[in-house]
Amino acid sequence: MAELIPTLNTCLPKMTSGEKRFARRLEKLLEDDYLCWFDIPLGGKRRYPDFIVLHPARGLLFLEVKDWKAENLKRLSHKQVDLLTPTGLKTVANPIEQARQCCYQVLQVLGRDKQLQQPAGNHTGKLCMPYGYGVVFANINRKQLDDAIPEEHRSKLLPSHLLICKDEMIEAADAEDFQARLWGMFNYQFGAKLTLPQIDRIRWHLFPEIRIDAEQASLFPSADGDEPEGDAPATALAEAIPDIVKIMDVQQEQLARSLGDGHRVVHGVAGSGKTLILGYRCLYLAEALNKPILVLCFNITLAARLRSFISVRGIGDKVQVYHFHDWCGEQLRAYHVAVEKGEAPVWERQVTSVISAVERGDIPQGQYGALLIDEGHDFQADWLSLVAKMVDPETNSLLLLYDDAQSIYKAKSALKFSLASVGIKAQGRTTILKLNYRNTREILNFAYALAKDYFGAGNSSEDMPLIAPQAAGNSGPQPVVKRFESLEAEAAYITRCLLAWQQRGKSWKDIAILYPGGTAGKVIAAHLKKHAIPNAWLAASQFKRNYNPELDQVSILPIPSSKGLEFETVVVLDASFSPVEDAELADDIRRMYVGLTRAREQLMVSYHRQTPIGELLEGLV
Ligand SMILES: Nc1ncnc2c1ncn2[C@@H]1O[C@H](COP(=O)(O)OP(=O)(O)OP(=O)(O)O)[C@@H](O)[C@H]1O
């Protein structure tokens, strides 16, 4: 079964009946290795081919689908068709010409990419894969078409090999015949099978909005409308082409494009692109909704990182990003509600005050067009119940992202309740992402080897089985574990390493020093200061709030504050320390897993205390 992006269910509401039928045939009559896209603007331009079909061996095909009736076709030219519609006679583009223009526009772009050119032979430098275009007449049988248009016109204006007619796409159509029709639309067949990196490159060129790292192009075309035929390609497509491209994988793309309205839950392992999908979704929603969009997470530093992501993309006026407790404070301020008195810490009382104020109607429900929750695993049941009420029932757009393996605050949360009990409809709406892209294989294997036996420790719930991550990243150096006599000795060694790494060209901002808790942050900050190494010690809330990943300084963070962040190099200091008295080993391990999985390429762990977690770390190298 071919993969249709977005999913058929997402597309159905905006499809014509002919498009629906054709989409079902594509899904059913093509094999798993076909990718089909429906109605996606190409390269940020307002050119929507109805369908694009890509097959590694067959190539790339652009299709227009028309629900026209034979008797309504009145006059035909190369460029135009006069069509009788319920509102009178209309002149529209000849669909063959529409599909052809789409196809050639894309070919211009793909053809400039050296890695998509033929490396040798008579056609060196030409595009390495076949391509074609055609039209689907979902309501006209072949004979009706033949009868309606004289042969001499048809062969020039609607060549029969470029068409699929109603009777050739019936439910009982034979897969081989159907495919033969599709591939009959190609003028040539040549070239070797496309490799996976080549397929990624094709997607990278076609859909700039799902690129990673490089400036993601807007999800939407400019307001200027179509560019005339033959114009230079959109800027997004004309830029320099990198040797290695990074793009969402097909599952991520499918998910991002299919989120639609209603509640959705994404259960993804560490580094599987949850935050990436959240970012894509924000861009989409900012364009589609008038009401404000709320992004919530638990961690103050992650909120700062997300805020910087949102503001760089120019959607800060539509998307509000808060960590949960900050948002509660804002609500109380905005609606002039006093914090309840009591013994509990103020941040807890702020939460209960908001809950009561919403119940009383002093703070309105349904304030936001959409709600996106990152780090859902750290939210308690009553927090989720509260924020779920904040979504406008008309859009009902709620996205919850979580990874139970990273639940550090297990005692209170770890989603041990069912999502239904807090008003989140997860059943049949949950997607699981298993591939970890962030860490090298070595780092992921190291972190997983430490944590795998402890993940399950009483921590999964009915909605959320724990998931083993699969490595999708590159290979890199083995993590290093070092034991020292004291915290001072650890800090002195790490400082020497930092200076040496910087000498070799590493930027300060690529490095983070993480620690489980206690005094390690203070000690290392003093060492860095002594050696004039720029750093930001992000332990206190006011510093976390202002965290700016772009500043060239080493980040020093307690592990819990590093959730959701990532760095090229991570050093975990005082790793065998357990900050919570009488903590279960599973809790320490889970915290350590979060810290280790923040490292993209290089990981060093240092410790001096003889504790169970120290022994486990020692045993890993
Ligand atoms: N398909 C992909 N190809 C290459 N890199 C990817 C892909 N998907 C995600 N990444 C990269 O992997 C890293 C992790 O992504 P992200 O921060 O979105 O993951 P996450 O699921 O939110 O992680 P965590 O829960 O651990 O914070 C980022 O650097 C992101 O750019």
Automatic annotation (TrEMBL):
SUPFAM superfamilies: P-loop containing nucleoside triphosphate hydrolases (SSF52540). It catalyses: Couples ATP hydrolysis with the unwinding of duplex DNA by translocating in the 3'-5' direction; ATP + H2O = ADP + phosphate + H(+). Residues 17-112 form the NERD domain. Keywords: ATP-binding, Helicase, Hydrolase, Isomerase, Nucleotide-binding. Its EC number is 5.6.2.4. Residues 433-543, 550-610 form the UvrD-like helicase C-terminal domain. GO terms for biological process: recombinational repair. Signal peptide: none annotated. It holds the Pfam family UvrD_C. Residues 250-340 form the UvrD-like helicase ATP-binding domain. Gene3D superfamilies: P-loop containing nucleotide triphosphate hydrolases (3.40.50.300). It is an enzyme of class 5 (isomerase). GO terms for cellular component: cytosol. GO terms for molecular function: 3'-5' DNA helicase activity; ATP binding; DNA binding; hydrolase activity. This is DNA 3'-5' helicase. It comes from Marinagarivorans cellulosilyticus. The lineage of its organism: Bacteria, Pseudomonadati, Pseudomonadota, Gammaproteobacteria, Cellvibrionales.
